[in-house]
């Protein structure tokens, strides 16, 4: 048996034992509330009696903004390695990045024309 396999096995067993110990300790150390009425009541941000309905619907525009943020945020993940290696990639790397940024800009224009960025 290789030393890497033994080390990996020891690490997995140690993680398992640590998890079991943490869950066991929280069971004994953590606070308990045996009252079923208080246990099932709403408590949010220090407010015991919430005002209004909690089943409100969010606008679809909220989700569009969130998804577009993720899409444009992921572009940074692709641009950072390019910026680090821009000298090695040369002109072809520069052209490819301009195409990538152009496609992202077209997506931004599309979102602007569909009024996905306007919040009412």
From TrEMBL:
Ranges that cross the membrane: 6-29, 62-83, 89-112
Membrane protein topology class: Multi-pass membrane protein
Localization, UniProt: Cell membrane; Membrane
Assigned EC number: 7.1.1.-
Top EC class for this record: translocase
Keywords assigned by UniProt, alphabetized: Cell membrane, Membrane, NAD, Quinone, Translocase, Transmembrane, Transmembrane helix, Transport, Ubiquinone
Catalytic reaction annotation: a quinone + NADH + 5 H(+)(in) = a quinol + NAD(+) + 4 H(+)(out)
Similarity annotation: Belongs to the complex I subunit 3 family.
Protein name per Swiss-Prot or TrEMBL: NADH-quinone oxidoreductase subunit A
Record lineage: Bacteria, Pseudomonadati, Campylobacterota, Epsilonproteobacteria, Campylobacterales
Protein's gene: nuoA
């Amino acid at each position: 048996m290789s030393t890497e396999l033994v080390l990996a096995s020891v690490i997995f067993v140690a993680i398992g034992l640590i998890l079991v110990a943490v869950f066991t300790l929280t069971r004994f150390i953590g606070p308990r509330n045996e009252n079923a009425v208080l246990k099932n009541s709403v408590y949010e941000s220090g407010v015991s009696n919430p005002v209004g309905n909690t089943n409100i619907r969010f606008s679809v525009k909220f989700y569009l903004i969130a998804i577009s943020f993720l899409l444009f945020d992921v572009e940074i993940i692709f641009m950072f390695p390019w910026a680090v290696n821009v000298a090695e990639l040369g002109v072809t790397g520069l052209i490819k990045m301009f195409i990538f940024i152009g496609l992202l800009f077209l997506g931004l224009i599309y979102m602007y024309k569909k009024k996905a960025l306007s919040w009412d």
